[in-house]
Specification:
With 224 residues, the chain is an alpha+beta fold. It has 10 helices and 4 strands. It has a 4-stranded mixed beta sheet, covered by helices on one side. Strand 3 and strand 4 form a beta hairpin. One of its GO terms (biological process) is glutathione metabolic process.
């Protein structure tokens, strides 16, 4: 069997690695996931540092091109294989894709990640979660989601009435967040909830979700 020209290095349970995989799946690109072990420190080995000097995952190799940072990888994949998901060809649409892509990266994901770390990964590692950190980020996330609800009451998707990377880039972080007891923050907002359910129902999202069995870490248990 021929080796795929596109390789992704990392552990697929990572929402950042899976973000890159989702872009590849949506674009219909054949790729090889090269497994690595965080526990074994594979990301700090010289051969990986040659791919990404920051020692992070994912890394994508596309022929002679090597990229890191999941947002950059996603944009590259779609720019090359499915540019309509970037709003290409319409300056206004492309600008709105860029805006909400940045909103995900800087407004929503940092808050959701902080909650996921404390609710899923900290207990999984046998440590006590910091409820003060959770509470602070939950309150901030409520306000961000209110902005999303207002936006999605006006259009089916974040950049307009067309699916784009601005929507897809949310999936893997939100998949983890929805495994926590704070999923109701999304479920009580009708437009955000419908948007999320649509994303989660996509075949590419379902396939990527199989790599991320986050519910097994005790996240669904109500914190007393």
């Amino acid at each position: 069997m021929a080796t795929s020209a596109v390789k992704v290095y990392g552990w697929a349970i990572s929402p950042f690695v899976s973000r890159a995989l989702l872009a590849l799946e949506e674009a219909g690109v054949d790729y090889e996931l090269v497994p690595m072990s965080r526990q074994a420190g594979d990301h700090h080995r010289p051969e990986h540092l040659a791919r990404n000097p920051f020692g992070k995952v994912p890394v994508l190799e596309d022929g002679d091109l090597t990229l890191f940072e999941s947002h950059a990888i996603s944009r590259h994949v779609l720019r090359k294989h499915k540019p309509e998901l970037l709003g290409t060809g319409n300056l206004e649409q492309a600008a709105l894709v860029d805006v909400w892509f940045e909103v995900e990266a800087h407004q929503l994901s940092p808050l959701a990640i902080a909650i996921v770390v404390e609710c899923i990964f900290t207990p999984f590692l046998g440590r006590e979660r910091n409820q003060a950190v959770v509470d602070e980020n939950v309150e901030k996330l409520k306000k961000v989601l209110e902005v999303y609800e207002a936006r999605l009451s006006k259009s089916k998707y974040l950049a307009g009435d067309f699916l784009s990377l601005a929507d897809l880039s949310h999936f893997t972080i939100m998949h983890c967040f929805m495994a926590t007891e704070y999923a109701a923050l999304v479920e009580v907002l009708p437009h955000v909830s419908a948007w999320w359910e649509g994303l989660a129902a996509r075949p590419a999202a379902k396939k990527v979700a199989e790599f991320m069995p986050v519910g097994t870490a005790g996240a669904s248990k109500k914190h007393e």
